[in-house]
Amino acid sequence: MSLSMGRQALLPEHPRPLLFAHRGCSSLAPENTMEAFSLAKQLGAPGLELDIHLCKSGELVVLHDDSLMRTTGLDRPVEDCTWDEIRDLDAGSWKAPQFSHCRLPLLQEVLETFLPDLYIDIELKTRRAGADPLPEALAIMLKSFGKRAEGHISVSSFNPLALRAFKRSSERLGLHIPTAVIWCDDPELPSYLHHGEGRWISGCDYLKPIHNKVNRGFVTLLGQLGRRPIVPWTVDEVDLARTMLQLGCEGLITNRPQDILPVLKDVSHG
Questions:
Q1: Does residue 214 carry a pLDDT above 90?
Q2: What pLDDT is recorded for position 2?
Q3: For residue 122, which of 99, 95, 96, 152 has the smallest C-alpha distance?
Q4: Among 187, 184, 243, which residue's Cα sits nearest to residue 210?
Q5: 71-119 pLDDT, tens per residue?
Q6: For residue 231, is pLDDT > 80?
Q7: Across residues 139-163, what is the average pLDDT?
Q8: Which CATH architecture has domain 18-66+106-269?
Q9: Does residue 269 have a pLDDT over 80?
Q10: pTM greater than 0.90
């Protein structure tokens, strides 16, 4: 069955090039924490990128990995834990001792704090092929934010089925949120999705390839002819940023907004 919703424009009210601080300013503060997001805003980043999981008690938790181990030391999947078990975990000491006060935030807190001042790309972290509650839970939350969310939120995932489910839930709720499929050559991603094939399954509106996939032919075929904006990740070097923008990418995702922001200003004033 094809999706009845047409293509959604990618954050049309926001100036180009777009810039998303990857998990916040994750080069200087612990990723996916309020501290990293606040620092990105202080540095002048216009957008954030973050990751969400649905925990056992139903809250949308901002976390990249399936497991809590790397950033909190708790060797358990986030989906198997309640928010009461997660909320007081130290999510900063792994980065540096001075960040021991950092905690994992809920998506609700991030949206309440930063919308509509910043635009936010929310990545759905799920491996499920069906019966997945995460996409609809996100759609319901975004609906509750009303005008604060629409025009300031995009949703992405490596999982094209999750994106498709989110798009259907959004359509049912009357939301207009652009979506993007993400891809790279990581062996954890099925090989049949290594070249952006998820765009057909998901019915997505823009593309988030790893930066080394992007060249002039790619931009022409998938971007211009495919009529989808391209926002590559993770672009941390100044020369690479310039190259991606010269090729026609509409935005960048970076761990180092402190380095990449001047490049965007040069381009926008050029």
A1: yes
A2: 35
A3: 152
A4: 184
A5: 999 999 999 999 999 999 999 999 999 999 999 999 999 999 999 999 9
A6: yes
A7: 97
A8: Alpha-Beta Barrel (3.20)
A9: no
A10: yes
Q: Pairing state of beta strands 206-209 and 179-183? A: parallel
**pLDDT range class, residue 4, cuts 50, 70, 90:** very low
Q: What whole-number distance in Å separates Cα of residue 116 and Cα of residue 134?
A: 23
Q: What distance in Å separates the CA atoms of residue 176 and residue 96, rounded to the nearest whole number?
A: 40
CA distances from 269 to 15, 44, 203, 242 (A): 12, 16, 34, 13
Please tell me the total number of residues recorded for the chain in this structure.
270
Mean pLDDT, rounded, of the chain: 95
Per-residue pLDDT, 162: 98
Q: SS3 sequence, the chain?
A: CCCCCCCCCCCCCCCCCEEEEECCCCCCCCCCCHHHHHHHHHHCCCEEEEEEEECCCCCEEECCCCECHHHHCCCCEHHHCCHHHHCCCCCCCCCCHHHCCCCCCEHHHHHHHHCCCCEEEEEECCCCCCCCCHHHHHHHHHHHHHHHCCCCEEEEECCHHHHHHHHHHHHHHCCCCCEEEEECCCCCCCHHHCCCCHHHHHCCCEEEEEHHHCCHHHHHHHHHHCCCCECCECCCCHHHHHHHHHCCCCEEEECCHHHHHHHHHHHHHC
Tokens of 36: 């990293």
Q: Which of 178, 177, 98, 170 is nearest to 135 (CA)?
A: 170
Q: Is the peptide bond before 229 cis (omega within 30 degrees of 0)?
A: no
165, 138 Cβ separation under 8 angstroms: no
Rounded Cα–Cα distance for residues 125 and 158 (Å): 8
